[in-house]
Design brief:
mainly alpha; 2 domains; 434 Repressor (Amino-terminal Domain); single chain; 111 residues
């Protein structure tokens, strides 16, 4: 099993965005640089288990939230990216798009 650090980085970025914490703020709290955090979030750097623990504590999640099923090379939109994509549409169209996406996901899951 190979760990996909891009998935882990995306999950860290998502959790950080949900907490409204900048890369600089996270870096300060884990005694690292913003560049290091950016590289982790992009999957360029492979954080140690200790750094993952520190990051998870700052973000209020578990390390498992970052690594569970990280071997799956799945490209996904996080909540923030999805919100940005939908923001150009009216609330009614957003609801239609989300309903369509839900239908597609359910159809894929039944196969």
């Amino acid at each position: 099993m190979e760990i996909n650090y891009k998935v882990i980085g995306s999950r860290i970025r998502l959790c950080r965005a949900k907490k409204n914490i900048t890369q600089e703020q996270l870096a300060f709290q884990i005694n690292s640089s913003a560049n290091y955090v950016s590289n982790i979030e992009r999957g360029i750097k492979k954080p140690s288990l200790q750094k993952l623990v520190e990051i998870s504590e700052v973000l209020g999640v578990t390390v498992n939230d970052f690594i569970y099923n990280s071997s799956e090379a799945v490209v996904f939109y996080n909540d923030f990216e999805l919100s940005e994509l939908l923001s150009v549409y009216t609330p009614e169209k957003q609801k239609t798009l989300l309903n369509s996406l839900t239908t597609i996901i359910k159809a894929i899951q039944t196969k």
